[in-house]
Amino acid sequence: MDINLPTDVLRSFVAVADTGSFTQAAGRVFRTQSAVSQQIQRLEASIGQTLLLREGRHARLTAEGESLLGYARRILKLHDEAVSAIAEPDMEGVVSFGMPDDYAAGFLPPILTSFAASYPRVRLELICEPSSQLVPAIQSGALDVAIISWRQGMPQPEVVRREHGAWATSKEHLVHEEDVLPVALFEPG
To answer: What is the pTM of this model?
Structure first.
């Protein structure tokens, strides 16, 4: 049996398995959705098994996909450790990283996974505070890096993502037609 499992293809497979979406997986592995789809098709063809069932915009693992997923994670972890040990053998220390609480659940797991794989001997100190408290911590040197919600009056940061708000209501409610709209928001920053 002469089957090769390239790490970039396994990374795409794991991303689809984790997100349940080819589009979201594409964002994680920095490829187009069609490129990720082609990688998965080649992977399935090379091993002769269907790994993912496509259901509209969603994908779910088959039993064979579930079986491969554990191996793929271990292969990628070992690969990343080897690359890190060779590419950055002397990189160690502590990095302080700040982020608002409301970002932590959505963004933190892949950031921590990637960072730990790339820099296994670097300890990451995580500080979850509102952006208004993280900016002065960056400026004073108390934090090495932070992801913040920017607003007018703050120093201009490097933009890594833009969020666009949307209002939604059910067909049975006309809340958007009220003069005063009750909303609950985080404090600024």
So the answer is: 0.52
